[in-house]
Amino acid sequence: MKRFESEKPLDREPSHIGSEPIAVSAIASPQQPSATDCDVLIVGGGINGCGIARDLAGRGWRVVLCEKDDLAAHTSSSSTKLIHGGLRYLEYYEFSLVRKALQEREVLLKSAPHIMWPLRFVMPHDPSMRPAWMIRIGLFLYDHLARREVLPGSRTVDLRRHEAGAALKPAFKRGFVYSDGWVDDARLVVLNAIDARARGAEVLTRTRCASAQRSADGWTAVLEGPDGRRTVRARAVVNAAGPWAEAFLRGVAHSAQGEALATRHLRLVKGSHIVVPRVFGHDHAYIFQNPDKRIIFAIPYQDDFTLIGTTDIELQGDDPGAARIGADEIDYLCEQASRYFAQPVKPSDVVWTYSGVRPLLDDASGDPAAVTRDYMLESNTAAAPLLSVWGGKITTFRKLAEDAADEVGRMLGETRSAWTDGAFMAGGDLADWIGATTRSTRPDDDFERFVAAVQVRHPWLEPALAHRLARAYGARISEVLGDAASMAELGPAVAPGLHERELHYLQDQEWACSGDDVLWRRSKLGLRFTPQQRDQVGAWMQRHARSKEGAPCS
Predict the structure, then answer these.
(1) Do 456 and 499 form a contact (C-beta atoms < 8 A)?
(2) What angle do CA 282, 286, 291 make, to 5 degrees?
């Protein structure tokens, strides 16, 4: 078995808001399964699975991807939303991981300026945590382990004069500022799936791989989805099931002799986040050092909120899909944030929470925070090729996918060239709207020019809606708006600012089937809507899912 290396976590729906039932037809049992042939079957529709599907399809391989729930329904929509090198990993001597992640930051920031952008972080100095000289050395390494074109370097600031100091307690007089990036993680997954489909991949959501039987020359998998059972014959299988990767090998995939194929043990670590009304008004984020030697982030979120996280709590035998934040985690995050902010953060302030489960390789470390976030690709060619993805983080997903596609090609006996380094994500190429781009220096400036161009081309669009649609869809905004020439032609508003035309687009083009898909993954509009408005969106999706022929969830 051959090993490689590279990233990250898991999620659920908002813990304070109940999930609605998904309107799908019952599994048809009497019908004979139909067969589909492909080169590669990918199991798992998170960031790694969709990234690998995109890369393989772009190299001309025939790809089928199946996901038992919605795209990014779990780990990949439950991250801290950062494109970052992982400053704290330097303390664990993870120099290779940090370098790889730092190299990927700028590749990603240039590829999709509508869903990711540079972000400056402020670390208030607490002398009881780490000495200033140690932090300066760490930031120097962080600045120089990989080449920077887009992001400015670190510096020391006087918090008594810097705008970020106003929200902090007066005891914090000095701080350090450095650069990383922010990403809409769930939309990143969807963009990879869109690109994979455009390049020929078949993406099946709400479709479970019930069994995968291996033979000497191929795999036969039975998939169960809304339209019944189907058989897929594949030359190779990629196990990208995240927190379920080990379970897939133990209970779903079998050798020709019927034996399970598991070789690794995953360590499942829950990371939880809270969202509170905006604590500070500037556009910087904070990184706070805690007495337990961990760190938490406080990040500007959706204009009117602050995102605070994350925790590290090991799951022992629990279902990853049932992960929810505990009261002790809420207390912990509020307590640690309140050590720094002048205005305390209280549990009663929390308006939303989410929890993800990071599938980390078990390295026998006693501290979950110390377990490596790097990935490993494990290939098995004892019979038909099998590639399992272990671990990983969202920042290094593209490199992971590139390495995985290289290895799949090697196992299938044909080398095909990598292509994603420098390629745009779906909607990321704004040239038709703004002409020459500055993606090599300030991709966030390109986005602001793009918003202005959208408003010039569609002056009838309400400004707030124009900005939200530009953020979500980038250059694909034209596909959302179609030939609409007025607000009325967007159709009735199912909830404030959410019109029928956009919902039809999400159904037809982005695999959205339920209200939760729309409100918590394709967007975060659920934060702004009342329970009644969220119910209206869910009811609309259910009504139209039953009548809409050809929709991915029909």
Answers:
(1) no
(2) 150
Q: Is the dihedral of CA 479, 484, 486, 491 positive or negative?
A: negative
160 backbone φψ class: left, alpha, beta (φ>0; ψ -120 to 50): alpha
Task: Name the nearest CA neighbour of 268 among 361, 182, 350.
Answer: 361
What is the bridge-based pairing of β-strands 208-214 and 253-254? parallel
Among left, alpha and beta (phi > 0; psi -120 to 50; other), residue 316 is beta
- What does each of the 554 residues of the chain score in pLDDT, given as a tens digit? 333 333 333 333 333 333 333 333 333 333 444 567 999 999 999 999 999 999 999 999 999 999 999 999 999 999 999 999 989 888 877 888 899 999 999 999 999 999 999 999 999 999 888 899 999 999 999 999 988 888 999 999 999 999 999 999 999 999 999 999 999 999 999 999 999 999 999 999 999 999 999 999 999 999 999 989 999 999 999 999 999 999 999 999 998 877 778 778 888 999 999 999 999 999 999 999 999 989 999 999 999 999 999 999 988 766 888 899 999 999 999 999 999 999 999 999 999 999 999 998 776 555 665 566 788 999 999 999 999 999 889 999 999 999 999 999 999 999 999 999 999 999 999 999 999 877 656 667 889 999 999 999 999 999 999 999 999 999 999 999 999 999 999 999 999 999 999 999 999 999 999 999 999 999 999 999 999 999 999 999 999 985 444 445 64
Q: Which amino acid belongs to residue 12?
A: R
Q: Can you tell me the distance from the alpha carbon of 58 to that of 177, in angstroms, rounded to the nearest whole number?
A: 39
> Rounded CA gap, 117 and 181, in Å?
6
Q: Do 510 and 538 form a contact (C-beta atoms < 8 A)?
A: no
> What's the full length of the chain, in residues?
554
Q: Rounded to the nearest 5°, which phi and psi values hold at 401?
A: -65, -40
Cβ atoms of residues 13 and 526 within 8 Å: no
Q: Which two tokens stand for residue 269?
A: 């670590």
Which one, of 261, 257, 260, 197, lies nearest residue 67 by Cα?
Answer: 197
Return the half-sphere exposure (C-beta side, CA atoms, 13 A cut-off) of residue 454: 29
Write the burial class of residue 96 (CB in 10 Å: 0-12 exposed, 13-18 middle, 19+ buried): middle
Alpha carbon distance 198, 357 (integer Å): 30
Q: Where are the beta strands (DSSP E) in 384-470?
A: 386-391
According to DSSP, residue 182 is labeled E
Q: How far is CA 51 from the centre of its chain?
A: 11
pTM of the predicted model, to two decimals?
A: 0.91
* Residues sharing a CB contact under 8 Å with residue 486, sequence separation 6 or more, in sequence order: 460
